[in-house]
Amino acid sequence: MRVVGLRLEPGQNVPQHRNAIPVALIVSEGRLHFDDGAKIGEVGAGEMLLINPGERHTYRADVSTSAYLVFAGLPGVRSRTWSLRRRG
């Protein structure tokens, strides 16, 4: 898993693109307008947008906006279980 911070100023947008892996976009401040080709909507502070692998999407900000992108895995890499317990 990888977490990336995103900051957009009013009027900025992220051009249409696709991701090879699932992504959760969590807005922490402001709001983002999104378009995934099938629907158009808005996510605000405290809300999350789930983006499926291969899904074309774009988003833009009308106000200063901060968000986190949580990438759920890497293409071609199998997930492994993990634990907080010590091995012994």
Summarize the structure.
By secondary structure, the chain is mainly beta. It is built from no helices and 8 strands.
What is the CATH class name? Mainly Beta
Q: How much is the radius of gyration in Å?
A: 15 Å
* Share in β-strands: over 45%
Total helices: the number is 0
Features:
mainly beta; single chain; Jelly Rolls; 4-stranded antiparallel sheet
Structure, described:
The chain is an all-beta fold and 88 residues long. It has one domain (2-71): Jelly Rolls (Sandwich), CATH 2.60.120. It has no helices and 8 strands. Strand 4 and strand 5 (40-44) form a beta hairpin.
Write the layout of secondary structure elements.
Layout lengths: L1 E7 L4 E5 L5 E7 L1 E5 L4 E5 L3 E4 L5 E5 L3 E7 L17
Antiparallel strand pairs: 1-8, 2-7, 3-6, 3-8, 4-5, 4-7
